[in-house]
Design brief:
Elements (H helix, E strand, L loop, with lengths): L17 H4 L4 H18 L3 H8 L10 H12 L19 H11 L5 H4 L6 H11 L2 H13 L3 E5 L16 E5 L2 E9 L9 E9 L11 E7 L5 E6 L13 E11 L10 H8 L3 H24 L15 H31 L5 H25 L11 H11 L6 H13 L2 H22 L14
Parallel strand pairs: 1-4
Antiparallel strand pairs: 2-3, 3-7, 4-5, 6-7
Helix pairs in contact: 2-5, 5-10, 5-11, 7-8, 7-9, 10-11, 10-12, 10-13, 11-12, 12-13, 12-14
């Protein structure tokens, strides 16, 4: 390794476990340090300015000038598109594990990810387009996203069905000659009010009578300026409008697109959706670890604040708060190990084989984050619930991630169902234990005992 050992003493590696450090390539060490320095010096100090620019009259749905400035800086420093796994030719060369270390740092302030073109839904969309599109489609739709000259959105969730069961998605895609016609309602695609949002990747039902329910749906590219798309309103998330990107509610009414805008072919939507949500499913989790670290640091500061001395004692001197601080530290470190393990599993065995590790992250990390941030708010008392700290926004994001990319209950169901498939193997193992016990009891002259309803039948 060409990097000097002292590189790993940089603050960027303070919380990274030794087993991960041992796997980092020289280019990864360089990028992790660069991301750390960029976030710490360019992003976190500028958070109030970013909020002030978006609050200017008439600018709510226009990307802030500071965001454009920082994106250019990040691009020049080679920090764009770090998330794209190294098996893509467009990748900057990091593994999922190495990118996890970068993503945690980005999570320290919500919008830092966007300065490096590593934000949702762009990450999932870019990976989808890179993986499934034709060369012509890549040139037209993928390259502007990689260059950062355009933005996109993903349009899947619907208000009229249980979208957690994606086979129920009902927005119709009907072929008429050389066009597809789209009709339906959608939720959560980024706001059309922001002119930088150039297209939606939309999942809809193209073959409703197909006996194979997994082959009824297709994925298409829909330019945002196509006639027939109406944004009904912006959706707030726990009261936050997430401007200037937002989350829209849409009506598609006789929206016509050329047939060449279909991705991979008719009936391939589920194949595409699963491919899109491999690493993308845990990018949120990676960033949540960094967000928790920032919240935790704020809690530590509150604990030693000499202005806050209830009953003449610092907040951090109370036994209950000492234990609270310890528990938060343990949970964050535990969560980091889970996310890093999932990323490493995907690198070694592939996204499909990493299904359990991905689900594990998706279930555990957002729940951990909401608990930790809630405790941090508690340490701040009434101020912890206001805009005086970033904690409420952090909590709202963590709570959102329990739903984003599939509710955690759906992932629990998947994990539980897969685990139950292993039960018969354990039952046979226990029958073998019992058979061996019976042999030993006979051999040693001991009474062989069984218990109705518990002892396996041998």
């Amino acid at each position: 390794m060409s990097s000097q050992p002292q590189d790993l003493t940089h603050p960027a590696f303070h919380r990274i476990p030794p087993w991960v450090k041992a796997k980092l390539s020289p280019i990864a060490i360089e990028k992790i340090i660069a991301v750390h320095d960029f976030v710490e010096t360019e992003c976190i100090p500028a958070d109030p300015i970013m909020k002030a620019q978006i609050a200017e009259v008439g600018k709510r749905w226009t990307t802030q000038p500071l965001m454009h400035e920082l994106r250019e800086k990040a691009k020049k420093r080679g920090l764009f598109n770090l998330f794209l796994p190294k098996h893509f030719k467009e990748s900057p060369g990091l593994t999922n594990l190495e990118y996890s270390c970068c993503a945690e740092i980005m999570g320290r302030v919500y919008w830092a990810q966007q300065t490096m073109n590593c934000h949702a839904p762009e990450t999932g969309n870019i990976e989808l387009l890179a993986k499934y599109c034709t060369p012509e489609q890549k040139k037209k739709w993928l390259q502007p996203l990689l260059d950062g000259t355009a933005s996109s959105a993903y349009s899947m969730t619907e208000p009229d069905v249980a979208s957690s069961d994606a086979t129920q998605i009902g927005c119709r895609i009907t072929r008429e000659g050389n066009e597809y016609v789209i009709n339906g309602r959608k939720l959560y695609g980024n706001c059309i009010w922001n002119s930088e949002n150039k297209f939606y990747i939309l999942m809809g039902c193209s073959d409703p009578t197909n006996p194979n329910k997994w082959a009824r749906h297709s994925t298409v590219i829909v330019p945002t300026n196509t006639p027939g798309i109406t944004q009904v309103r912006n959706l707030t998330i726990m009261g936050y409008d997430h401007a200037p990107e937002g989350h829209g509610e849409y009506i598609y009414e006789n929206v016509r697109i050329p047939v060449e805008n279909i991705i991979l072919g008719e009936g391939r939507a589920f194949e595409i959706a699963q491919g899109r949500l491999g690493p993308g499913r845990i990018h949120h989790c990676m960033r949540l670890i960094g967000q928790c670290e920032r919240a935790y640091e704020l809690a530590l500061i509150r604990c030693i604040d000499k202005r806050k001395t209830p009953r003449g004692r610092s907040i951090g001197s109370f036994d209950s708060n000492i234990e609270r601080i310890a528990q938060m530290r343990l949970e964050i470190d535990q969560g980091r190990q889970v996310v890093l393990s999932a990323a490493d599993t995907m690198d070694i065995h592939g996204n499909k084989a990493g299904r359990y590790a991905i689900a594990q992250s998706k279930i555990l990390i957002p729940n951990m984050a909401t608990r930790v941030i809630d405790e941090c708010m508690q340490l701040y008392g009434g101020q912890g619930l206001t805009q005086h700290t970033p904690l409420p926004e952090m909590w709202a994001y963590a709570r959102f991630v329990r739903i984003a990319d599939g509710p955690d209950s759906a992932h629990r169901h998947q994990v539980g169902r897969d685990e139950l498939k292993t039960a018969e193997g354990y039952a046979e193992r226990n029958r073998e234990y019992q058979r061996r016990y019976k042999e030993l009891a006979t051999k040693m002259g001991q009474k062989y005992e069984t218990f109705w309803g518990v002892t396996p039948d041998v």
